[in-house]
Amino acid sequence: EELAEKLGHVGDVGKESGLRLLAAFSKKDEYVPESVERDVLLERLVSAMNNGFDGGGGGDGGDGGESTAVVVARGLMLENGNHNLSKGEGDKEEFVEAVA
Questions:
Q1: Could you read off the pLDDT of 66-100 as tens digits, one per residue?
Q2: Dist CA 38 CA 20 (whole Å)
Q3: Of 1, 48, 82, 90, which cross-links 7 as Cys (Cβ 3.0–4.6 Å)?
Q4: β-bridge mates for residue 7, sequence order
């Protein structure tokens, strides 16, 4: 799929370097049209960055799980936040906690 072609390098770089990516998305982002299914978009972006692996089930490549896929990107949906997290109680704190 086109997203994987555009974003698959993120997973490759992360596997080589050990770096991880947090894709944070604000559910009430005023710059995203209401017609966009934000949860679906975030899932698709994360899957594309992980080269088609969504992170569900299996292992992470080093813990004895069945899958050898490495989860480089993970998603965080901030339920009440706007684009810059200036609104939405607790979303700023949730974001900082996820990054830390």
A1: 556 789 999 999 999 899 999 888 999 999 999 98
A2: 22
A3: 48
A4: none
Of the two residues 29 and 61, the one the predictor is more confident about is 29
Helix (H, G, I), strand (E, B) or coil at 23: strand
Q: Which residue has the tokens 């991880």?
A: 20
Contact predicate 78/94, CB 8 Å: yes
Whole-number Å distance between alpha carbons of 74 and 28? 19
Residues 6+ apart with CB under 8 A from 84: none
Burial (CB count within 10 angstroms: exposed 0-12, middle 13-18, buried 19+), residue 71:
buried
* Distance, CA of 20 to chain centre: 10
CA distance 7 to 9: 5
Phi–psi pair at 77, nearest 5 degrees? -95, 120
Gap between the Cα atoms of 80 and 68, Å rounded: 35
In the chain, which ranges are continuous DSSP H helix? 2-17, 38-49, 91-99
